[in-house]
């Protein structure tokens, strides 16, 4: 029986998708790296299994509905890419595939409602703040909230930090060494505005002027990763314009959320086949995670022992959690560690099973709560086992997921470690005493 989509009509990313499918030699080396295979122990929930399923749908020998449960269960964490000896670019297959089949998959109405609410609130800080405030009221009266919406409430903190408007420009502190533009992010601005503050603080400290384009929007990666290619393209197009509008050149577009950074680096793919494809690709090449930019100027950092723990301790143990969209999607593993190691009296400790995703993965913890919870518990357990009083990471989704699971595991004897963004930690360790 023939189904759905012949490969040759798979849209502007058809060649890259076909390349990814044909590069897979089915060796299975990726299986041990895949968190969902680890949890679910099914070939169809492994990278190799999913590549075969996507191939069959694209060739018309399987319906998209049949493959959907296994593709929906994929975190998009890209742990399969560095594990693959054949160089399969899974990212060039998964997101374009999801975008292609999105309208052809039957989705139950509660899930449809949840996805619609997420798409209408998370990418818009003002709407999300309003929704989060309503959510906090809803938490108090959760018995009255429809069950489909309760998982969204679980992701909210106990209180919302006060909103902080960003300026459009921040001057460097001391001599200027460059100029960067900051992606302000969307949900992060509401849940943790301190991350942008800390990021700007560190960037200014090393001598960078920071501009924050006022016309910027959500980067679009939340939409892109769930297959809403049209919405992602709308956001990407807006940002290509917003970040190109400044009359003075910038050295880099800086992101401080791993998912946003990897999404912006895929603008060439999101806008492939459009009139601004080459402009989008050029812009994508200037996007860097903040840890990379700070590392490039690391000799300008003046750091002191963190005042975040008890005075009596000789060293401060800090655990670093690799966000998948930083480590796997952007290849950024060394720079955050290098920055943390530079802080006096800091001992960086490894987290076991570092390759395993924490289960956050954009909106995955809403769509696939059981697998997300299992991975979140495992990650929190591994962090607790380090005994470090601080855990640091570079992605708001990971920080929220870690905090939730660490809190649920903490006891009086073993309190939850403090969860911080890498820039929050670094900002708290900057030495700003006057130079003699
Ligand atoms: S490791 Fe690479 S080539 Fe081997 S099965 Fe996995 S994706 Fe295919
Ligand atoms: S992206 Fe992550 S969850 Fe999906 S197949 Fe690859 S390793 Fe597995």
Automatic annotation (TrEMBL):
Metal-binding in keyword set: yes
Domain named 4Fe-4S ferredoxin-type: residues: 14-45, 65-94
Catalytic activity of the protein: (R)-lactate + A = pyruvate + AH2; glycolate + A = glyoxylate + AH2
Keyword annotations of the record: 4Fe-4S, Electron transport, Iron, Iron-sulfur, Metal-binding, Oxidoreductase, Repeat, Transport
EC number of the protein: 1.1.99.14
Gene Ontology terms, MF aspect: 4 iron, 4 sulfur cluster binding; D-lactate dehydrogenase activity; glycolate dehydrogenase activity; metal ion binding
Pfam families: CCG (PF02754), Fer4_8 (PF13183)
Cofactor annotation comment: Binds 2 [4Fe-4S] clusters.
Cofactor(s) demanded: [4Fe-4S] cluster
InterPro entries noted in UniProt: 4Fe4S_Fe-S-bd (IPR017896), 4Fe4S_Fe_S_CS (IPR017900), Cys_rich_dom (IPR004017), Glc_ox_4Fe-4S (IPR012257), Helical_ferredxn (IPR009051)
Described purpose of this protein according to its UniProt entry: Component of a complex that catalyzes the oxidation of glycolate to glyoxylate.
Name recorded for this polypeptide: Glycolate oxidase iron-sulfur subunit
Organism of provenance: Rhodopirellula islandica
């Amino acid at each position: 029986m023939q189904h759905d989509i012949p490969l040759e009509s798979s849209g502007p990313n058809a060649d890259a998708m076909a390349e990814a499918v044909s590069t897979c030699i089915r060796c299975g080396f990726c299986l041990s790296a895949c968190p969902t295979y680890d949890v679910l122990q099914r070939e169809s929930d492994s990278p190799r299994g999913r590549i075969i399923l996507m191939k069959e749908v694209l060739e018309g020998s399987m319906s998209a509905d049949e493959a959907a449960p296994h593709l929906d269960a994929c975190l998009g964490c890209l742990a399969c890419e560095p594990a693959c000896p054949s160089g399969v670019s899974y990212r060039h297959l998964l997101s374009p595939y999801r975008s292609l089949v999105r309208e052809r998959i039957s989705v139950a109405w509660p899930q449809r409602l949840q996805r619609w609410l997420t798409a209408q609130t998370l990418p818009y800080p003002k709407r999300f703040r309003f929704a989060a405030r309503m959510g906090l009221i809803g938490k108090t009266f959760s018995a009255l909230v429809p069950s489909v919406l309760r998982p969204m409430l679980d992701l909210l903190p106990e209180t919302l930090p006060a909103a902080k408007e960003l300026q459009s420009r921040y001057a460097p502190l001391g001599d200027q060494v460059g100029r960067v533009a900051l992606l302000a992010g969307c949900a992060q601005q509401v849940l943790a505005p301190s991350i942008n503050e800390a990021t700007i603080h560190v960037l200014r400290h090393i001598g960078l002027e920071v501009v924050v384009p006022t016309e910027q929007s959500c980067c679009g990666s939340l939409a892109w990763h769930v297959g809403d290619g049209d919405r992602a393209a709308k956001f990407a197009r807006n940002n290509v314009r917003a970040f190109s509008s400044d009359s003075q050149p910038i050295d880099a577009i800086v992101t401080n959320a791993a998912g946003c950074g990897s999404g912006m680096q895929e603008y060439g793919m999101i806008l492939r086949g459009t009139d601004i494809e080459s402009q989008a690709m050029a812009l994508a090449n200037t996007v860097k995670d903040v840890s990379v930019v700070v590392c490039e100027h690391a000799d300008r950092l003046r750091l002191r022992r963190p005042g975040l723990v008890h005075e009596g301790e000789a060293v401060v143990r800090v655990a670093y959690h690799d966000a998948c969209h930083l480590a796997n999607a952007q290849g950024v593993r060394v720079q955050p560690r290098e920055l943390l190691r530079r802080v006096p009296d800091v001992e960086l400790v490894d987290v076991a099973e570092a390759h395993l995703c924490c289960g956050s993965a954009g909106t995955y913890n809403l769509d696939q709560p059981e697998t997300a919870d299992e991975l979140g518990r495992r990650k929190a357990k591994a962090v607790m086992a380090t005994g470090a009083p601080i855990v640091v990471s570079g992605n708001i989704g990971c920080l929220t997921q870690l905090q939730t699971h660490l809190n649920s595991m903490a006891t009086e004897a073993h309190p939850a470690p403090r969860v911080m963004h890498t820039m929050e930690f670094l900002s708290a360790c900057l030495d700003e005493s006057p130079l003699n």
